[in-house]
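Entry 14. Ran structure prediction on the chain below.
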Amino acid sequence: MNSSDIILQLAVTIGDVPTLDLTHGLGVFWKQYTPSKLTTNDRNEDADYRQDFTATSFDDRSFELVVFDPPFTANGPSKHRHQKRYRSHRDQEGAPQNIKDVRRLLVGGIKEACRISGRWVLVKTQDVVESGQLHANVNLALNTLVKSGFNVVRETEFHSNRRPQPSGRRVTGLGRRPSVFILAERNRVAAE
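Output, structure tokens:
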């Protein structure tokens, strides 16, 4: 199972609605299912829009679904294949430099996704171990969604294949954390 399989499963719940992929990247989510009205945003790719995902020019509630897959860790510059693939070099403009930046971008992006969404927000994140400390990004995402007037409908854990580690480093202890897809729906009472 991969990310696009999970999106396909969630599409049954959501339906075919106007969708914004706030952090499009390589578009991996959309390999199994593509909404008929998909708008893409990514500063580093050939996307429809190239805006900062924490402060876009989209109108409030302009898409039924907003998908948000932010950077989950701060990676240094290297030729490591995952850093190249996901464009997670620290030297890129706006890239997170440390876990505080990662968490700031997670909260800022979720708030922006909630502002833009008319009904659904889908966030992919994961808890991170950095310098031997567990950072509960999943709880941070859940709390931010609820504070933004959304109800969590579904959480789906995604256990990917083990990722290669940068040379000279090895994740130990709690390092292998699953990604979590969080589907949230706008609270109808708060929306009125």
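The CA atoms of residues 39 and 69 lie 15 Å apart. Will compare against last week's run tomorrow.
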